[in-house]
Amino acid sequence: MASFSQFGSDLYTGKRSYDIVGRRKTWYLIAVIAIVVSLVVPWLRGGYQLGIEFTGGSEFTISNVQDLDQSIATDTVERIVPDGIPRVSQVGQDGIRVQTEQLTDRETTEVQDALAEAYDVREDQVAATYIGATWGADVLAQAIRGLVIFLALAAVVMALYFRTWKMSVSAMAALLHDLLITAGVYGIVGLEVTPAAVIGFLTILGYSLYDTVVVFDKVRENTAQESHRTFTQSVNLAVNQTLVRSINTSVVALLPVAAILFIGSYVLGAGTLRDISLALFIGIIVGTYSTIFIASPMYAHLRENEPKIKQADAKKAQAAEKRQREVDAAAEA
Amino acid sequence: MARSTPVKKALRSLTWLVVLMAVLAGLNTAASVLAGNAKDDSGEWYEGASWVPELALDLQGGTQLTLAAQNTEGGSVTREQLNQAVNIIRQRINATGVSESQINTQGTNNIVVSIPGKPDKQTIDRIEAAAKLTFRPVLYTEAATNTSVGDGADSTASPTPYSPPASLQATPSAKPTNASDLNWVTPKLQDLYTNYNCAAPDDVTTAPDDEPLVTCDQDGTAKYILGPVEVSGANISNATSGLATDSQGTSTGQWAVNLTFDGTGTKDFRTVTNRLVSLQQPQNQFAIVLDGSVITAPTTNSAITNGKAQITGSFTADSAKTLADQLKYGALPINFQVQSNENISATLGTAQLVGGLVAGLIGLILVIIYSLIQYRALAFVTVLSLGVAAALTYLVIAIMSWRVDYRLSLAGVAGLIVAIGITADSFIVYFERIRDELRDGRGLESAVESGWKRALRTILASDSINFLAAIVLYVLAVSDVKGFAFTLLLTTLIDVVVVVLFTHPMMQLIARSRFFGEGHRFSGLDPAALGAVYRGRAQFRAPVVDGKRQQRSAGEAQRRQTIAERKAQQASGENGTTPDGKDD
Questions:
Q1: Is the separation of the CB atoms in B584 and B558 below 8 Å?
Q2: Do residue B420 and residue A256 have CB atoms under 8 angstroms apart?
């Protein structure tokens, strides 16, 4: 794809350039709308659909099933526990998963035996899982604690590395944007939030910032150089120059995640792999977007009003104007 | 031609990599071979080494119990108490003969127990039960006879608990007057004691308090007949370890465990020691029994009237502390509640593992195809680097599985697959940097060197962020999240190692080849395709101007040059064409 590397070099030299940083108001508006939607719609829908790990309950997994009729499971469970409210889904090629309210030990054994009989499988092919409601809450509480500590540490590390807290703030803003929107997608589509989804969600943290660091490194390099560009122009050039890199790294990061998502959804069915990869898949896409359209414009926004930069920019603008006048004058002559 | 410095450096880095991998592989191979020849539980350094990493429950099937520790007296459970509880549970599970179990703490008051297979209700009840520490007088004791039951070799293979014939008398012929009374020993108990096999003990965790007990010590090296319970562990108010002091208060240099009883305990213990001190060996011993197993059976030297006992013997600082902890734990008002009981069938586990591996393979192939499209021949560097990273990861996981009992879970596998992309990202950052340098008009060799300096900084910075995320998750998170964080942590480190010791040296070496050095069309480093104006080796031109307006003004400036200026410039070859190829 020579055209793509041609595209890359055009962006590098500035022959082709997208004014991303300059149109920041548009991106801010889009981000605000997206975040509001991510917060409001799940709320209107009545909150997130939490997995059994958070609500507590019993789960039965039947493997090596010949007849995948899900109503067998519903009937069987309802016969033993009339108010068990079974939720049945297919797992993998030949598995059935039944989730119910929390059952007693005796009920669990009964349901397990009945399911084995109904589906005509050996008893050890029916796995029973029982999860107390506090378990998921513990996982979630730990995850949130981890999130907060990570954000604080990462902000400090980035501020030290880039030697400006403004890059930290912009990166964190982009990260929050990613987290809110990914969570929003879960809420809007009504995907089940499981501990595995929480893992995927936490991994977005690392990836989103990783992506931002790569771009900011170039931004720092460009803005540190003496040039005739204004600060905002320098940032925009850096974003354009790293565009191909951002696309390539994101595609390469997405491909394996997409592979897990595919296998997880179509071959294995509901479970850890699907839940981890789904959150990651959404997160990587949103993360790449936010690095380019949120983090960089915001950084330019935060810095351009600094007196020193303002002064330099004004001078550069004057010089550019002068050059332009000369060009125009020459053209007239 | 003498080797230039980059080549020397490259070869040195590659040598280090080979040495590193050889050491890891050699270590694991040696240990695996030794472990293959040795018996299980050899206790040697190589125990458990293997080329196949251990799998976690969700991949091999089994049961995972999450137990919440609860303080029966209200209040919270301390970290120390939780760790002691883990030890207790480990002993209980080992006593049931279940091998390969894993017990970890999770969060502030949870304990996660992973057991292969499906435990019966009894086993779970037993794990759940509160720890019970009691003091019982010793009636008889002797060294354990662990392998003498049955005849021939097969008896040791799967020992079963001995049960005495039902015909034997089970009630004392005369009513015992106190707990040390030998009348407790009925013919049936005597028969059980004689034939008792410490390798296959009875389930004595919940032995009744008011009856005598046949049991072993925790190592299974001695067996006992014990009288009924005389002092309950709940009456211990504290237990500490320290150096023993004599009656003058000076240190004897001997390690001791100091016990303090509460009011009831003081009274009960006084009664026991008053009686025991005058009896013959071994009846002057009292056994401290935890969950039915004897943890120690000290001899009574004097009657303890003030509720402060000191146990001395051949303690080391460590063993004294262990005993003190065990005694203190017996006084801990903790019981456990099963919070979750997850059972994964082996078939489902295998399906998950296969699914994960297939997903990894597909992901890898996609990454390779995409790299080929984007980076042409450079993709081979990517593939080789990923291969080296995979080999290193496998080695480290095999060694971790052997040394620290690491188990690869499904979340861990997912982490490894995700890592393919993140590792390949480092190569992209590097390759793009080299391309940037080429676009600026450098030759490949110098582009590799200067691109590397900048790329390394970016890679280190972004990897540190990933590393930070992984560490925070690993330290704070629980269960599955930990497995995932660990693989992320590991692969981030390996990413750096591979980029520094493999990818960069490889680039240094291939930069000298004709194919890459001259920017073959399929090399992925073709300067012409990259928009650089390249005029053969060692000829550079000034960086291209950028921005449409700048181009225009540069063009204008050119037009406004005097003829002499223009000629001079053309002669010097300094000023190339503008990027769109028009000369003016």
A1: yes
A2: yes
Nearest C-alpha of chain B: how many angstroms from A32?
Answer: 26
- B/e letters for B398-425, b = 16+ CB within 10 Å, e = fewer, are bbbbbeeebbbbbbbbbbbbbbbbbbbb
Residue among B411, B466, B470 whose CB faces A272 most closely = B411
pLDDT by residue, tens only, chain B of 584 residues: 456 788 888 899 999 999 999 999 998 888 888 877 765 555 667 777 778 888 877 788 788 888 887 776 667 777 777 777 777 777 767 666 666 677 777 767 788 888 877 777 777 777 776 667 888 888 888 887 655 444 444 434 445 677 777 777 777 777 787 777 878 888 888 888 888 877 777 766 667 778 888 888 877 788 888 888 888 877 888 888 888 777 677 777 788 888 888 888 888 888 888 888 888 888 888 888 877 788 888 888 888 888 888 888 777 887 788 788 777 766 566 777 777 777 777 777 788 888 888 999 999 999 999 988 888 888 889 999 999 999 999 999 988 888 777 888 888 888 888 888 888 889 989 998 888 888 888 888 888 999 999 899 989 988 888 888 888 878 776 666 777 788 888 999 999 999 999 999 999 888 888 777 777 777 777 766 666 544 444 444 444 444 444 444 444 444 455 555 555 555 554 444 434 433 43
Fold of the domain spanning B58-129: Alpha-Beta Plaits (3.30.70)
**pTM for the full predicted model:** 0.70
Report the chain A residue with the minimal C-alpha distance to residue B427.
Answer: A249
Query: Would an 8 Å CB–CB cutoff place A248 in contact with chain B?
Result: yes
* CB–CB contact B429 A132 (8 Å): no
Is A128 in Cβ contact with B477 (below 8 Å)? Answer: no
Judged by a CB distance cut-off of 8 A, whether residue B578 touches chain A is: no
DSSP label at residue B545: P
Tokens of B449: 């060197």
Q: Do A10 and B417 touch (CB under 8 A)?
A: no
Optimal mutation site among B358, B386, B418, interface A, most CBs of chain A within 10 A: B418
- Residue A151's identity, in one-letter code, is L
Residue whose C-alpha is closest to residue B114's, from B165, B65, B157: B65
Q: Which residue in the set A145, A150, A255 is minimally distant from B421, CB to CB?
A: A255
Assign residue B408 a region (left: φ > 0; alpha: ψ between -120 and 50; beta: otherwise): beta
**What is the crossing angle of helices A2-13 and A231-241, to 10°?**
170
CATH architecture designation of domain B5-36+345-517: Up-down Bundle (1.20)
Among 3.30.300.30, 3.30.1360.200, 3.50.50.60, 3.40.1180.10, name the CATH number for the domain at B133-151+158-337: 3.30.1360.200
CA dist., res. B63 & res. A112, Å (int): 15
Cβ atoms of residues B461 and A142 within 8 Å? no
Which chain A residue is nearest to residue B58, measuring alpha carbons? A272
Identify the CATH homologous superfamily for domain A18-49+135-323.
Multidrug efflux transporter AcrB transmembrane domain (1.20.1640.10)
**Set of chain A residues whose Cβ sits within 8 Å of the Cβ of B420:** 256
What ipTM was assigned to the predicted interfaces of this complex?
0.83
* Strand pairing class (A192-193; A49-50): parallel
Closest CB to B340: pick one of A12, A132, A205.
A132
**B439 touches A at CB < 8 Å:** yes
CA distance A42 to chain B (A): 25
Residue of A nearest to B438 (CA): A9
CATH superfamily of domain region A57-131: Ribosomal protein S10 (3.30.70.600)
The beta-carbon neighbor of A150 closest among B410, B458, B469 is: B469
Q: Where in chain A is the domain with CATH 3.30.70.600?
A: 57-131
